[in-house]
């Protein structure tokens, strides 16, 4: 019997491989990127995995401690240049997000919000004085930032934001509120977006400023290893130099969201990969009817389909990363990545849970934690429906928002 026919008939066993080894995708990466990925994977293995189930259970993670450790290895704002930032490639940053979210979506969110939202806004739109004041200590994890765009009544429609900033002499006075703001309860500084007579503008707001209060959002069923809050701005007086000088109009905060969405394209794959690893490990050791359940055709069909979708999502993320490194990545392309990869990741998580059976709901395994977290990832930085409309607009030339 030939090797091929033996394999088809199930008579010849072969060594197991990791899901992302199926297409030898590592061969697409330069050695430097693989080394960066290995550093982050080791950090997640030693610092996150042993504790994250408990963080999730109690609804609290040591955000400040993690920020310092992440800053020490250059993870915060790692794709930015100067001011203490690592200046890594977009692909390397994506791989880091993948490994972080393989630990937990909330942990990756900490890094994304710090680097791709708060730090990026200051790096891209801030004055030199603002960059020097904030970025080095944020890159080191000494200061934690948050990004205030979403409001209680204005999520997918930020153009309708109610937060206002008015001039009072040379000062600015901000009033309003922001909701579902990652890192807000522990943040030292917030980038707040507000409507002015000149359009939407961004402000760097120290959280200790009089009139600023942050309230932790409790009783979450998702992203429990992440700090999420509401920010209230009660006639907050800021000096003129708090304004981000080159951020004018809604395009500025949306460009920051594009940065964060790119990290999600990779990060969601990490959650999916961790679920698939768990399901394969479980299926090869769990026996029913006298054999491992991994040896049954229905289980292998599930595993094969999930592995195929994981490869496709990885290739999409890598393509987008290379476009980003070439400076040609467009927002609608990021929407394709987020829509596909998060949608597939949550489907993989749910399918893996079925392979684990009743154990799939146990905190002993990470699968349902990942699935619950991905419910938030599916919604934040643009819902699936919003990304469908972004893609639809590019395909048709017609905007369907609000219609």
From TrEMBL:
Similarity section: Belongs to the acyl-CoA dehydrogenase family.
InterPro entries: Acyl-CoA_Oxase/DH_mid-dom (IPR006091), Acyl-CoA_Oxase/DH_mid-dom_sf (IPR046373), AcylCo_DH-like_C (IPR036250), AcylCo_DH/oxidase_C (IPR009075), AcylCoA_DH/ox_N (IPR013786), AcylCoA_DH/ox_N_sf (IPR037069), AcylCoA_DH/oxidase_NM_dom_sf (IPR009100), Glutaryl-CoA_DH_mitochondrial (IPR052033)
Domain named Acyl-CoA dehydrogenase/oxidase C-terminal: residues: 248-395
Top-level class of the enzyme under EC nomenclature: oxidoreductase
Entry protein name: Glutaryl-CoA dehydrogenase
Domain Acyl-CoA oxidase/dehydrogenase middle: 146-236
Acyl-CoA dehydrogenase/oxidase N-terminal domain segment(s): 31-142
MF terms in GO: fatty-acyl-CoA binding; flavin adenine dinucleotide binding; glutaryl-CoA dehydrogenase activity
Domain of life of the source: Bacteria
EC number, UniProt record: 1.3.8.6
Cofactor(s) needed for function: FAD
Alphabetically ordered keywords of this record: FAD, Flavoprotein, Oxidoreductase, Transit peptide
GO BP: fatty acid beta-oxidation using acyl-CoA dehydrogenase; fatty-acyl-CoA biosynthetic process
């Amino acid at each position: 019997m030939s090797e091929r026919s033996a394999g088809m008939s199930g008579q010849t066993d072969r060594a197991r491989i990791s899901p992302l080894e199926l297409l030898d995708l590592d061969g697409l990466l330069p050695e430097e990127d693989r080394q960066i990925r290995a550093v982050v994977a080791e950090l997640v293995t030693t610092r996150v995995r042993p504790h994250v189930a408990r963080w999730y259970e109690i609804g609290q993670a040591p955000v400040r401690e993690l920020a310092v450790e992440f800053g020490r290895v250059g993870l915060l704002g790692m794709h930015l240049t100067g001011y203490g930032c690592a200046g890594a490639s977009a692909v390397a940053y994506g791989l880091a997000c993948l490994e972080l979210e393989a630990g937990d979506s909330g942990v990756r969110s900490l890094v994304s919000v710090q680097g791709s939202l708060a730090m990026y806004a200051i790096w891209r739109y801030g004055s030199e004085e603002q960059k020097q004041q904030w970025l080095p200590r944020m890159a080191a994890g000494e200061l934690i930032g948050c990004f205030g765009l979403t409001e209680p009544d204005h999520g997918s429609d930020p153009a309708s934001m109610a937060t206002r900033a008015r001039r009072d002499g040379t000062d600015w006075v901000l009033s309003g509120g922001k909701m579902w703001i990652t890192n807000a309860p522990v943040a030292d500084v917030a980038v707040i977006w507000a409507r002015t007579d000149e359009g939407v503008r961004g402000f760097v707001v120290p959280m200790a400023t009089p009139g600023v209060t942050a309230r932790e959002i409790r009783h979450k069923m998702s992203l429990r290893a992440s700090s999420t809050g509401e920010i209230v701005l009660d006639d907050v007086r800021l000096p003129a130099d708090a304004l981000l000088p080159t951020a004018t109009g809604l395009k500025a905060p949306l460009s920051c969201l594009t940065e964060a969405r790119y990290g999600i394209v990779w990060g969601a794959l990490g959650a999916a990969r961790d679920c698939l690893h768990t399901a394969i490990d479980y299926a090869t050791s769990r026996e029913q009817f006298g054999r491992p359940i991994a040896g049954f055709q229905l289980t292998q069909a599930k595993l094969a389909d999930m592995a195929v979708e994981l490869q496709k999502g990885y290739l999409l993320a890598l393509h987008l990363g290379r476009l980003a490194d070439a400076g040609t990545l467009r927002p609608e392309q990021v929407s394709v990545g987020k829509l596909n990869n998060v949608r597939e990741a949550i489907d993989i998580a749910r399918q893996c849970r079925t392979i684990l059976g009743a154990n799939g709901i146990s905190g002993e395994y990470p699968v349902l934690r990942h699935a619950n977290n991905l419910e938030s990832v599916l919604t934040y930085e643009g819902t699936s429906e919003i990304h469908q409309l972004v893609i639809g607009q590019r395909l048709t030339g017609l905007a369907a928002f609000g219609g």
